[in-house]
TrEMBL record:
UniProt name for this protein: Transcriptional regulator, TrmB
Keywords (A to Z) from UniProt: Coiled coil
Annotated PANTHER family: HTH-TYPE TRANSCRIPTIONAL REGULATOR TRMBL2
UniProt cross-references to Gene3D superfamilies, sorted A to Z: Winged helix-like DNA-binding domain superfamily/Winged helix DNA-binding domain (1.10.10.10)
Domain DUF7436: 110-263
Keyword Coiled coil assigned: yes
Organism from which the protein derives: Halorubrum salipaludis
């Protein structure tokens, strides 16, 4: 921050305040001469400084005399005013964001086929979490194995927290795991988190041997697929996200069949 203008002062106000600092006290004419602010603008500049509490005015004599408040006080007051202004803006943005989201959602179409991909474990996780956060109605998680690149103790709780956040948004979450993945999940996730998840009415967990691979079905219209490295199947190559209702329907139908025959997990 190089200038008081960064905190909202005009160029003339900035120059007038600096001129007063050099003078100590002075009349409007004195300040105009010291600061090179035109005489026709000096009263506006001093009035602006006064309204911000940056100058003190001796008005019981003519002409009025002005004195600057200390620089530390002036900057604190300007920063405080700027903070309040930004807080008001944030409140305005927050209050209007739902309407904007609704407007954008009304214009959104999911009829077109679209896909995107991420390569590598970190980017794949970022893409997955982004799509989980975008779910609005339902979310299906199917996992039969874990990549050697993932630290289950670290990523497992993070994934569960994302699922719980989705539930709080009103999303129905169904998780289908292989027995091996279920055992790994139990060792990675602390008991309190697990009990909290199981207590959610919109969360259901089942275990089966009848599925293969890892995928995530979002709102019955989008599928995230984990893609294994063909030269090292225990390592993740990337994540493929497909928005295709036809494909999503096939995946949903296959999941429903496996779900019906899976073992229900009611507590951990």
């Amino acid at each position: 921050m190089e200038s008081l203008r960064d905190l909202g002062l005009s160029s003339y106000e900035d120059r007038a305040y600096r001129g007063l600092l050099a003078l100590g006290t002075g009349t409007a004419a004195d300040v105009a001469a010291e600061s090179d602010v035109p005489k026709g603008r000096i009263y506006d500049a001093l009035g602006g400084l006064e309204s911000r509490g940056l100058v003190r005015v001796q008005s019981d004599r003519e002409p009025k005399r002005y004195a600057p408040v200390e620089p530390a006080v002036a900057v604190d007051r300007l920063v405080g005013a700027k903070r309040r202004e930004l807080e008001r803006r944030i409140e305005t943005y927050e209050s209007g964001k739902d309407d904007l989201i609704d407007q954008l959602a009304d214009a959104e179409t999911t009829d077109d086929r679209f896909w995107t991909a991420a390569v590598g474990a970190d980017d794949s996780l970022d893409l997955l979490f982004e799509r989980i956060d975008a779910a609005s109605e339902s979310l299906v998680v199917v996992a039969t194995e874990v990549s050697s690149q993932f630290e289950v103790d670290r990523e497992g709780p993070v994934l569960l927290d994302r699922l719980l956040s989705a539930i709080r948004r009103g999303v129905d979450v169904s998780v289908l795991l292989s027995p091996a993945m279920f055992d790994e999940a139990l060792t990675a996730i602390d008991e309190d988190r697990a009990v909290l998840a199981m207590a959610q009415g919109a969360f259901a967990l089942r275990v089966t041997d009848d599925v293969y691979g890892n995928f995530y079905l979002i709102d019955d219209e989008e599928v995230c697929l984990e893609v294994a490295d063909p030269l090292a199947p225990d390592r993740l190559f990337g994540m493929l996200d497909l928005r295709d209702r036809g494909f999503a329907t096939r995946v949903s139908d296959g999941f429903a069949e496996a779900w019906e025959s899976a073992e229900i997990v009611e507590d951990v």
